[in-house]
Write a structure and sequence with these properties.
single chain, 498 residues, alpha/beta, OB fold (Dihydrolipoamide Acetyltransferase, E2P), four-stranded mixed β-sheet, 21 helices, 46% helix, flat
Amino acid sequence: MSKEIPLKLIVGTVSNEKGVSEEVIFEALEAALVSATKKRYGAHIEVRVVINRKTGTYETFRIWHVVADPELNQPLELPFSQITLSAAQVDDPKIEIGDTVEEQLESVEFGRIAAQTAKQVIIQKVREAERSMVATEFKAKQGQLVNGVIKKVAREGIIVDLGGNAEGLLKKDQILPKESYRPGDRVRAYLVEIVQDIRGPQILLSRTHRGMLAELFKIEVPEVGEGIIEIKAMARDSGVRAKIAVKTNDGRMDPVGACVGMRGARVQAVSNELGGERVDIVLWDDNPAQFVMNAMSPAEIVSIVVDEEANTMDIAVKDEYLSQAIGRNGQNIKLASELTGWTLNVISAQEAQVKDEQEKTALLQTFTEKLDLDQEVAELLIAEGFTTIEEIAYVPVNELLSIGGFDADIVDALRNRAKDVLLTQAIADEEDLKKPSAELLSLEGVDAELAEKLVQNNIRSRDDLAELSVDDVKEFTDLSDEQAAKLIMQARAHWFAE
């Protein structure tokens, strides 16, 4: 049964007042009518109400889910919303398990109770719609700066009024260390992301994010905003100090000077916005070593030793620049490491010289002893940049032939010696893997037979044994529970030693 009601008028009015679509209002009214219907017919039933969007009339249907016939004398799990397959097929032989059957009910009148329910649902739906609209609007501003007014200072952080019924959250850990705000204060922040919360979409703001630094330079330096100057990397200790690396493809332009501005005006404007945060601007370089040197400026670097495998660089600076290179509490070296992506170690020039001499001495000893070379030949290899026996064994022959005084016979002999050394070392390493460690053999109760069983099960050290359980040990030994537990505790004893 359908009832003519002025729902169309209601929907149009609410939609215009709240600025949400009519469809949202219709869905809210349908939900309210479903609730009112359940109050009349029972809360356990499933109901569907359909409002005609053109006329405002509506119809009500009860929904039944088709399930398999239960065993004899067994009730349905949900008798108020389920119907057996056999019963459903009386009216429709083609129906299958999993389908639904709808039964039209007499629609409830849109009375006072239904209206009250609808009002609450509409309010909720409108709020959700408003939040969704706000989220959609600000989604486009993600990764940009936004301006707002402090609305409330709460325990979780600061609520910022962004205008247009939008609120952002500036958490306490996203505020600069020396900053304090009161309601009514204006604030500029970086829009990090919009996350879904139980209360709806939430706009998260930050003043410590590196992105805020980049966005401020886009505003203060037109060349950055236009893409003429590119910010390649950033590192930031929020509120204290930051480093940015810049690059330009325009050879006529000095990217560092452009970012600094006349008498430092541009970089100073950024610094002022960030509560006096000092910003170092360095020139980007594709050469990692040169980039590190730029990042460490103004400290004068004497030498750099690059370890590509460990991704580290040892930087030697003059003694008078040592404290400057490290910075207060290691801040400068920390930011430079973060900016370049390399682990940087700063040492004095004197320390670097001593370390270099020690490394050369050790390398000279390795080459002369293991390869049976004259000191002169070994020094020549070191001077040419060879640092491992592997390099001598496997570098292209031409590289060795390019060394003064080396002919084909010398190169072949040298490479063969290097390969023999590596082979001998590999065999020795393999043999070591088959032997228990001295620490393992020193444990009480570990004899030759038990040690062999342990090694066969890849237990070669005291720590290997310490990580096992009693059951693990008993799987490949004849020890009792007590013996296995005692052995394991012996192996773990050094963990608890002072």
